[in-house]
Design goal:
Layout (H helix, E strand, L loop, with lengths): L7 H5 L9 E5 L17 E5 L22 E5 L18 E8 L1 H8 L7 E6 L19 E2 L5 E6 L10 E2 L5 E6 L19 E6 L5 H8 L7 E6 L3 H7 L15 E6 L4 E2 L5 H8 L6 E2 L2 H11 L1 H5 L14 E6 L5 H12 L8 E5 L29 H4 L19
Parallel strand pairs: 1-2, 2-3, 3-4, 4-5, 5-7, 6-8, 7-9, 9-10, 10-11, 11-12, 12-15, 13-14, 15-16
């Protein structure tokens, strides 16, 4: 430390500190130095301890005692092998925790957060570290987060192992934004998801019907769904079509959003020879399944209003909001235009439709699967989660596409 510097703890060691209710710390881990201080009345805290370039030795930041904190934004406060134990994890109701937490460390912390109501976590997508950090208090084998209703994962999803022993009976909203680490979902314990009413599932990875349909089967009570698909569109469209093959899957969905990655689709019929030249016989190019998609929309709007399913022992919720977003391939613009033409007539059934082509991607970084990230750290009650909640790319309630209104 240079001779002309003053320790932060010395500056803050004043009687008024006892009355502080909100605290924000931004600085290098080596520069915090508040370990001997206590902020007894702080209930909301934001701490970002990102290392600067000159700090090459990882060090756990010397954080103050926060005995009454309930809402926390923590970035870069832990390392692969240890995390701060003096934080009252058990009483936190709102928690953001990043960056790049190993799965084992996340599990250890998550099981301690028994009062959590909303959580957002940035997990590492590298390696298979499922072991809890060493030299810590024992991690409970089981934990029930009875108040947790909303959960978001950035960069990576969760696996069966990372959720072992965790029960979340009140969870209704789950948002998963993962990168290139493949599709992760705890298919072994579908009971974890039966109460979900909202699911956003976006990944950089190639994702197709065989990945999505097993996930959809674990969330039968969804009312809101946004997902990405890369291949075998028709199978997914048929799965979501009410009455197809006598099935009534996800019949409570009222808002549906799909990000279509069209690399292996074209607007016109393709010959077998053309398809083989492009991708090989195993994954040929396919004509876009317009008819299957139109059937999906019709089954959830026109058919419901017409009473086609009045004799079945289920309640079918009419689809009210539909958002389609395309990738930036040259042919995606034509696909988007045809989709608009095919489904515009369903607006007379109260359906708000937004179909957005490649031109809408300008300035948007998330639709390819990039996880959203907070540009500004602020307190929870200042709208911290707006970087996810207000993201237009994944909104199910966007404005209608021009010429596709909601009135006849």
């Amino acid at each position: 430390m240079a001779d002309n510097t003053i320790p932060l703890a010395q500056l803050l060691n004043r009687p008024a500190t006892l009355y502080v209710k909100r605290l924000m710390i931004v600085g290098d881990p080596l520069a915090v130095g508040l370990g001997e201080m206590t902020f007894p009345n702080v209930t909301s805290v934001v701490i970002n301890c990102e290392s600067w370039g000159w700090n090459t030795t990882p060090k756990l930041p010397d954080l103050p005692s926060l005995p009454n904190v309930t809402k926390a934004i923590f970035a870069n406060i832990s390392h692969d092998e240890y995390f701060p134990l003096h934080i009252p994890w058990f009483q936190l109701t709102h928690l953001f925790l990043g960056l790049s937490l190993p799965p084992g460390q996340w599990t250890a912390i998550f099981k301690l957060c028994v009062s959590l109501q909303r959580g957002c976590f940035h997990l590492t997508s590298e390696g298979e570290d499922l072991e809890p950090p060493v030299s810590q208090s024992p991690v409970p084998e089981e934990a029930t987060l009875s108040q947790l209703t909303e959960l978001a994962f950035l960069n990576s999803g969760v696996t069966t192992e990372s959720l072992r022993g965790v029960t979340m009976p009140a969870l209704t909203k789950l948002q998963v934004f993962s990168r290139w680490n493949g599709v992760t979902w705890d298919l072994a314990h579908p009971e974890r998801y039966t109460n979900l009413t909202h699911l956003t599932f976006i990944t950089c990875s190639f994702i197709q019907a065989e990945d999505l349909i097993p996930i959809f089967k674990t969330v039968p009570h969804l009312t809101e769904l946004f997902f990405k698909i890369s291949y075998h569109f028709e199978e997914v469209f048929k799965y979501l079509t009410i009455g197809c093959d006598g099935k009534f899957n996800l019949r409570a969905v009222k808002a549906l959003g799909i990000y279509m990655y069209t690399e292996r689709y074209r607007t016109l019929e393709l010959g077998e020879e053309d398809a083989a030249q492009e991708f090989g016989d195993s994954d040929p190019l396919l004509p876009f399944p317009y008819r299957a998609f139109e059937d999906l929309v019709a089954s959830r709007t026109q058919a419901v209003h017409r009473g086609d399913f009045s004799s079945v022992p289920y309640t079918i919720t009419p689809l009210q909001h539909l958002v389609i977003r395309m990738d930036d391939n040259d042919w995606a613009k034509d696909i988007a235009r045809t989709i608009r033409e095919d489904i515009q007539s369903f607006s007379i059934y109260g359906l708000t439709v937004g179909v957005f082509g490649p031109e809408e991607l300008q300035g948007r970084q998330c639709l390819g699967g990039e996880a959203p990230w907070p540009l500004i750290y602020k307190h929870w009650d200042e709208g911290f989660m707006g970087f996810v909640d207000d993201l237009e790319e994944y909104s199910l309630y966007t404005k209608a596409t021009p010429n596709l209104g909601t009135e006849p």
